[in-house]
């Protein structure tokens, strides 16, 4: 299974500033995903990032607010721009991988540890 | 519109007994379902999954049941152990031949196993 690390693990930021979150995977993967988990809420997909192409954003999320880079098959960044207190969340990256288990004919996504962002 | 719902925000079970976590979905196009466990300050960890061609999958102490007609799935943990105390997320997806498999998550259920 893929091992994923994220930097920073947490940060406290001022309103109006931007923060870039890094996601590093220990193997080459095609699909990388960025999720947000607001306090007390579920995980919500922000965008899908493929290497060599523009990220695909979900409804309610736009590139100007959450620009994403995917320079190679093991790394991606998510920037939270012009932050407001409503952006206080846990941001998680994940990758899709195949698992060699006899009963599993599909796939699973592996998640990083998350970045806890607090905006004052 | 919440397509995946976990209506119980919390559940408390005695050690050694069975834990049953429930999940309902509304989108009939979903055909693949996963359960994740999440500890504080960690990312979700995959537990078990099931495709819509099955109605049951087992992996050790964990069993997932799928009732397609009711659009309902459940996770059974037997026997429950203190280390099972965590938040459990149900997720659903529509299998694509190409492209990203996007997961839609429920709100999570906090399971507490009491000694």
Describe the 3D structure.
The complex is a heterodimer of chains A (120) and B (115). Chain A is mainly β and 120 residues long. Helix content of chain A is 0%, strand content 51%. Chain A has strands at 4-7, 10-13, 19-25, 31-37, 43-50, 56-57, 68-72, 75-80, 89-97, 108-111, 115-119. In chain A, the strands form 2 sheets. In chain A, strands 2, 4, 5, 6, 9, 10 and 11 form a 7-stranded mixed beta sheet that branches. Chain B has 115 residues and is mainly beta. Chain B has no helices and 11 strands. Chain B has strands spanning 4-5, 10-14, 19-25, 32-38, 45-51, 56-59, 62-67, 72-77, 86-93, 104-105, 109-114. The A-B interface holds A 4, 31, 33, 41-45, 48, 50, 56, 58, 92, 94, 96, 103-114, 116 and B 4, 32, 34, 36, 41-46, 49, 51, 57, 59, 89, 91, 95, 100-108.
Question: Any key phrases for this structure?
Answer:
heterodimer, A: 120 residues, mainly beta, 7-stranded mixed β-sheet, 4-stranded antiparallel β-sheet, 51% strand, globular, B: 115 residues, 6-stranded mixed β-sheet, 5-stranded antiparallel β-sheet, 52% strand
Beta content of chain A: over 45%
Unreliable stretches of chain B (pLDDT < 50, length at least 5) are: none
Sum up the overall morphology of chain B in one term: globular
Order of SSEs of chain B: EEEEEEEEEEE
Q: What overall geometry of chain A do the principal axes of the alpha carbons give?
A: globular
User: What distance lies between the first and last C-alpha atoms of chain B, to the nearest angstrom?
Assistant: 38 Å
Find the structural class of chain A using helix and strand composition: mainly beta
């Amino acid at each position: 299974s893929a091992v994923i690390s994220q930097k920073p693990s947490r940060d406290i930021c001022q309103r109006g500033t931007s923060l870039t979150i890094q996601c590093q995977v220990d193997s080459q993967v095609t699909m990388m995903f960025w999720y947000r988990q607001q306090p007390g809420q579920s995980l919500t997909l922000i965008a899908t990032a493929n290497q060599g192409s523009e990220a695909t954003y979900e409804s309610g999320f736009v590139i100007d607010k959450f620009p994403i880079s995917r320079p190679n098959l093991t790394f991606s960044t998510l920037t939270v721009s012009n932050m407001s207190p409503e952006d206080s969340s846990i941001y998680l990256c994940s990758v899709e991988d195949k698992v060699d288990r006899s009963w599993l004919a599909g796939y699973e996504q592996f998640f990083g540890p998350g970045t806890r962002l607090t905006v004052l | 519109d919440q397509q995946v719902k976990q209506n119980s925000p919390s559940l408390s079970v005695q050690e050694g007994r069975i834990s049953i976590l429930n999940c309902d979905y509304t989108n009939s196009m979903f055909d693949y379902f996963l359960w994740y466990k999440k500890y504080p300050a960690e990312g979700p960890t995959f537990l078990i999954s099931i495709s819509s061609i099955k109605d049951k999958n087992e992996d050790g102490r964990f069993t997932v049941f799928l009732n397609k007609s009711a659009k309902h799935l459940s996770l059974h943990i037997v026997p429950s152990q203190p280390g099972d105390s965590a938040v459990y997320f149900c997720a659903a997806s529509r299998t694509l031949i190409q492209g990203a498999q996007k997961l839609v998550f429920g709100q999570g259920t906090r399971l507490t196993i009491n000694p």
